[in-house]
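On clarity, I found the account of how folds are encoded harder to follow than it need be. Since the whole study asks how a given chain folds, the encoding of that fold should be made plain. For illustration, here is how one protein appears when written out as sequence plus structure tokens:

:::
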Amino acid sequence: MDHFTTRSGVLHVEDVAIPAIADAVGTPFYCYSSATMLDRYNAYAGALEALGAKVYYAMKANSNLAVIKTLGDAGAGADVVSIGEVQRCLAAGIPAARILFAGVGKTREEMAEALRLGVYQINLESEGELRALSEVATSIGIEARAGLRVNPDVDARTHAKITTGRKENKFGIDLDATRAIFDLAASLPGVSLRSLSVHIGSQLTDIEPYREAYERVRDMTLELRAAGHEIDHLDLGGGLGIAYGAETPPDLKGYAEIVRDKVGNLGCALSVEPGRFLVGDAGILVTRVIYVKQGGEKRFVIADAAMNDLIRPTLYEAFHGVVPVVNPDAPALDGVCDLVGPICESGDYLAQNRALPALGEGDLLAVRSAGAYGAVMSSTYNSRPLIPEVLVKGADFDVVRRRQTVEEAMALDAMPRWLADG
């Protein structure tokens, strides 16, 4: 369920008409529903409540401070992959003790700052990273609580660019090497390695791959314990998807049953790291039609949003539903069209081969399910400034990232001294 509804022929987010936001902030813009995020968080946390699992929001999905605070105030911790994300969580009110620091390439400087700040756990993904953490922790006199991300070699059956649990992926340690890493950690100072972590991919609507992955984690937990290693925490990752189009939404109850059956009786603290599931359906991208052009083969609807604002369609061949903001249920015209932007690239499209209603210049369109990996992956390509983000709560809305100006973007550049004169 989301909180985008049609009232009197106009699309609303919660109790706010989208044209009212467009009049206030201009287009294009991202718009997020607080109620949708909280509904998703409560459903996820509630499904796992009996297992005592803690929810850490995978904030790479949407790192807006207001989004982080909305979920943090509801009880979520945060799963982060850079020290910049750590700083964002702290600024949004999530304490360091509720932060898991993951990522395949953490620098020594990032490790040191994370340890000084007091993050709950640092997840390691290589022997080199383990040795680096030992050196860093020892040098600053802190014992680092650590987890080891294992690669279970499980096919998540998702897009190749967002699958992370196969042997050919860059993430994690092969299961066969896990025992050796734990033995090494036991001999190194400054590191307490007592946790296993696993994440097999993103946008999973079929929950069965989790069954195989968690079974392998369970078996490795028992093997490590038999070898004398203490394992008191299992980080089960995230990856549950959403229905962008014809997909069937994942079964939360079924997922919780897999967790219970495979790892629920090991006496370990459990954590999960949802991202897209919490925020994906909570956001839309609102864009305005500039022109409608009839090409030789199809109709082109040219809008003021582009691939630099939402790169998922061209990067992942991703599908996003598109509806008019006014009269969303209008019948589609015969034939298909492409929704494209002003970027000078053939790959600049938000939707291809879609049956859309008759549209004219100035009409507003909503690109659905854009709350995850939308604004956070945007760029200033073609010198297009970053667009606003708006958060709605009930009948209220506020700008939570203002529109960037061209001058602000250019201010990051600097002339070398040999070009500055004159």
